[in-house]
Amino acid sequence: MTMNVIERTREIGILRYVGARAKDVRRIFRTEALAVAFAGWILAIPLGWLIGRTLVWVVTEVFDFGSIAYDYPLWYLPVAFVVTIALAALVVVAPVHRAARLRPGDALRYE
């Protein structure tokens, strides 16, 4: 998110010049961070299940370790969701603070 704010400094300046308040800039970046975190969670759940299943198959079939039970409890899903969203909200605090404090003129002169 820090790199996102730095790369979009001119865009933030333009938003501020056309009337966006600091609160609006904070909301934009916070929403974007939470949307990316949610999309990551949505993609990671089936991918994590598939990777786990594949690893169990490799260990049991290829290395002939016998039988290994594969357990993927459903209560992992809401826990992973809460942790993902909480971390995204925490990580975005500093970049959002920087973006909201940016003065429009400084942002437009930024190279």
Topology:
Blueprint: H1 2-7, H2 9-17, H3 22-62, H4 76-91, H5 93-101, H6 104-109
Helix pairs in contact: 3-4, 3-5
Overall pLDDT level: 87
Unreliable stretches, pLDDT < 50, 5 or more residues?
none
Tally of extended strands?
Answer: 0
State the distance separating the first and last CA atoms.
18 Å
Helical stretch tally:
6
Share of residues in strands: under 5%
Largest sheet: none
Outline type:
elongated
Order of helices and strands: HHHHHH
Structural class computed from helices and strand pairing: mainly alpha
Rg over CA atoms, rounded to whole Å, is 21 Å
- Helix share of residues? over 70%
Explained architecture:
The chain has six helices and no strands. It is mostly helical and 111 residues long. Helices cover 78% and strands 0% of the residues. α3 packs across α4. The protein is elongated.
Q: What would the keywords be for this entry?
A:
111 residues, single chain, 78% helix, 6 helices, mainly alpha
Short recap of the structure:
By secondary structure, this protein is mostly helical.
